[in-house]
Amino acid sequence: MNKKTQEFRKKIQLFTAMASLSISLTSFSYLSYAWFTNQRVQEVQLMQVNIEEGLEYKFKFFDGNYNNRDYATGTNAGYQSPTALADPVEWMMITDYATEFDLVTEAMMAPESTSNPLAIVDIYPGIQYTFSIEVTSRLVAERDISFILKEFTALGEEDVLDATTLNPISLSSAIDIYVDTIDTYGKTPAQITAAANAFIQDSTPTDAFDLDTEGGIVDLPLAGSSIQPAVDMIENSIIFIFTIKFSDNSATYYRWDSSSSGISYYERSILGNSNVYQGKTFAINELFIHLVN
């Protein structure tokens, strides 16, 4: 990246902490998510958001991520995906986007915080978490923007391999990311709420993250939109609403196949389970909100 490009980007580093069942609270310089199965942790980490000059953003979390929808008193246990619930009556709902998506603050993410919206525990397949990034333009004209997953890391283990590819099994194989774009220009709060609710209640969402590698720079577009400039101090924002889910799709399951020379081989099988992902990590190293033109 040349110096001129660097000058046109505003980098914002977010900080948080992760709590586990077996270790004390530890600070990290990224947003953390963790799955626990039999007290063995799988981590999903969201690191930094970069945004180009002229744009601003707010990062928010859905209060439905908490079991009583109150981050101050509830347990940040996520909520069940519509794919995991046969009865639509049981699906999570958004009744007012403006009040049910709360700003992530530095105080919430401090190590001593007892209400960290990113300290996630007791996760199992089919559980998901929803967040939003509200982007506002301070530019003088309409522009196109893109929401990009720039880089991720999901290292496997050299002694736990896929029996077919002979590659280390990565937690990326079991991560789903769903994204939608809500353009608030000309929309009422009720219309914004309806769009957000339709997103989380979609029982056949499209997975925007279909990679199963150990990571690297991928520059994967997740969503895109045009954005209007602020008019008469009214903020016309684009909401990138996204969900991170530990997949309950049987296509992500593995079962043991064989062992040789200290290496365990697993095969993909709908008769298997998600246990092979225990102890593995997935990190989104960078999300980038890019001015296309």
Show the helix and strand layout.
Blueprint: H1 3-7, E1 9-13, E2 16-18, E3 26-28, E4 31-37, E5 40-52, E6 55-62, E7 79-80, H2 97-100, E8 101-103, H3 106-109, E9 127-137, E10 143-153, E11 160-162, E12 175-183, H4 189-200, E13 215-227, E14 237-246, E15 254-260, E16 263-268, E17 281-291
Parallel strand pairs: 5-17, 11-16
Antiparallel strand pairs: 1-5, 2-3, 4-5, 6-8, 6-9, 7-9, 9-14, 10-13, 10-17, 12-14, 15-16
Characteristic terms for this protein:
globular, mainly beta, six-stranded antiparallel beta sheet, 293 residues, 4 helices, 17 strands
Low-confidence runs of at least 5 consecutive residues: 1-43
> What is the average of the pLDDT values?
79
Report helical residue fraction.
Answer: under 10%
Beginning-to-end CA distance, first to last residue: 18 Å
Q: What is the count of helical runs?
A: 4
Beta-strand residue percentage: 35-45%
Largest sheet: 6 strands, mixed
Quantity of strands, as a count: 17
Q: Supply the number of structural domains.
A: 1
The whole-angstrom Rg is 20 Å
Broad structural category: mainly beta
Order of helices and strands: HEEEEEEEHEHEEEEHEEEEE
Overall, the morphology is globular
Overview of the molecule:
Helices cover 9% and strands 43% of the residues. The protein is mainly β and 293 residues long. It has one domain (3-160, 171-250, 276-291). The strands form 4 sheets. Strands 1, 4, 5, 10, 13 and 17 form a 6-stranded mixed sheet that branches. Strand 4 (31-37) and strand 5 (40-52) form a beta hairpin. It is globular, with a radius of gyration of 20 Å.
